[in-house]
Amino acid sequence: MRIAVLGADGYLGWPTALHLSAQGHDVVAVDNLIRRRWDEECGTGSLVPISSMEARCARWQQVSGRSITWHNVDLRDRDAVEQLVVAIKPEAVVHFAEQRSAPYSMISPSHGVETQVNNLVGTLNLIYALRDHVPDCHLIKLGTMGEYGTPNIDIEEGFIEIDHNGRHDRMLYPKSPGSVYHLSKVHDSHNLEFACRVWDMRATDLNQGVVYGTTTDECAQHPELATRFDYDGIWGTVLNRYCVQAAVGEPLSVHGKGGQTRGFLDIRDTVRCIELAALNAPAPGEYRVFNQFTEQFSVLELAEKVKHARAAHGLETEIHHVPNPRRELEEHYYKARHQHLLDLGLQPHNLSDTLIDHVIQAVETNISRVRRETIAAAVDWRRGGGLYRAPAASTLATATAR
Ligand SMILES: NC(=O)c1ccc[n+]([C@@H]2O[C@H](COP(=O)([O-])OP(=O)(O)OC[C@H]3O[C@@H](n4cnc5c(N)ncnc54)[C@H](O)[C@@H]3O)[C@@H](O)[C@H]2O)c1
After folding, report:
1. pTM, two decimal places
2. Is 268 helix (H, G, I), strand (E, B) or coil?
């Protein structure tokens, strides 16, 4: 298949591009590198050094004998998106290319607006270009389990059967997102469902859980094929952050009581889930939702798992409960269905002490690059955002001007 991977410079996009290429697909990698600029703005950076897209693609060619074509395109630019789609005529598009940090979206009004404009406009430009030039193309779009929030009933995969006043219907599952970023994903989902229902497009909306891990089979083949690894309070996902705290000997910081329960998955399962979705396209006019995670844990359970993995090596790790900067329930019911990808053949890598050890070893290899001051949560939901740890005004001004 000819597959375009949008957001291919990111944590998940790059390993996915490699994995699809390794499976023999003709992969086109697309990104506008904005994430590297957001890092400059926030004073953050990948713990694992990452190469330029040019160097990565050249290295992949040399290691695997396969080529990935690289395009620097901003999805907010409608003409550029249209030209790209006309030029490559993809059979499938994997769309990772969004602002994906909830804390970033809550820093200030301009960060919230920037997040929704980037994500909604980019996705709409893509939908229109596909509709007009390759209407049969399968759009595989990354959403998030955070779209659902934490309802007091079971979470279904995208749709719910409802009986109301003696009548019955199957409707989109109600959403209750917890940040301006998560809201952008909800709006995207509605736009995708509309495009399938009204224009007969075909889309898979992957409501992904929180991803952990540093590497995949393909990324591990050469240091220049490594993907980024975020651990800071703005971009880092929770287990990756705990592993960094454990490696540097800091207490694991659990927000509030720590009962916040979410779906999680290993980065190796992310790339396999995308492949499974691509190989099993929906029918024209079908909008399909898969809940893409493999296990659910509370954040306190995760901290305890890291503590346990360290204890197996005779190392002591403290767990601290810190004030929760987010507005969210700290004790709640959570049971989310995640059957569709298993039915397609996903064989999950469950979270183990070995995986935690691997992540901590990867951190230890790059320990001199840890910026300790960036690990703590940096944005407070309840006070309407703001950075606790404001970057230098000059950095912010330069980044905003770009
Ligand atoms: N990482 C997770 O745990 C997780 C969990 C659930 C969902 N997701 C979703 O998966 C996707 C990828 O996440 P990630 O962790 O790889 O994020 P990331 O920030 O590492 O990568 C996103 C990439 O998209 C690019 N991008 C953003 N806006 C763009 C635009 N307008 N035009 C072109 N490129 C643009 C960025 O430069 C970046 O390289 C996101 O949509 C995210 O919401 C991620």
Report:
1. 0.95
2. helix
Model pLDDT for residues 270-313, shown as the tens digit of each residue? 999 999 999 999 999 999 999 999 999 999 999 999 999 999 99
Each residue of 15-29: pLDDT tens digit?
999 999 999 999 999
Q: Across the chain, what does the average pLDDT equal?
A: 94
Q: What is the 3-state composition of the chain as percent helix, strand, coil, each rounded to the nearest 5? A: 40, 20, 40
Contacts (Cβ under 8 Å, ≥6 apart) of 292: 145, 206, 207, 208, 209, 265, 270, 273, 338, 341
Task: Check whether 398 has a pLDDT greater than 60.
Answer: no
Q: pLDDT band at residue 391, thresholds of 50, 70 and 90? A: very low
**Every domain of the chain and the residues it spans:** 2-401
Confirm if 243 and 310 have CB atoms less than 8 A apart: no
User: Do 23 and 275 touch, CB atoms closer than 8 A?
Assistant: yes
E-strand ranges in 145-292 read: 159-164, 167-172, 202-208, 210-212, 252-255, 261-266, 287-292
Pocket of ligand 1 (CB under 6 A): 7, 9-13, 31-35, 74-76, 96-100, 118, 122, 142, 144, 208, 210-211, 228, 237
Q: Which two tokens stand for residue 183?
A: 């809201």
Q: How far apart are CA 23 and CA 62, in angstroms?
A: 16
Assigned CATH for 2-401: 3.40.50.720
Query: How much distance in Å is there from the Cα of 38 to the middle of ligand 1?
Result: 12
Q: Which stretches does DSSP call E strand in 126-247?
A: 138-144, 159-164, 167-172, 202-208, 210-212
pLDDT at 382: 76
384 pLDDT band, cuts 50/70/90, is low
Taking each helix axis from N to C end, the angle separating 13-22 and 53-64, rounded to the nearest 10 degrees, works out to 20
What spacing in Å lies between the alpha carbon of 100 and ligand 1's midpoint? Answer: 5
Rg (CA), the chain: 20
Any residues with CB less than 8 A from the CB of 340 and at least 6 apart, and which? 157, 288, 290, 291
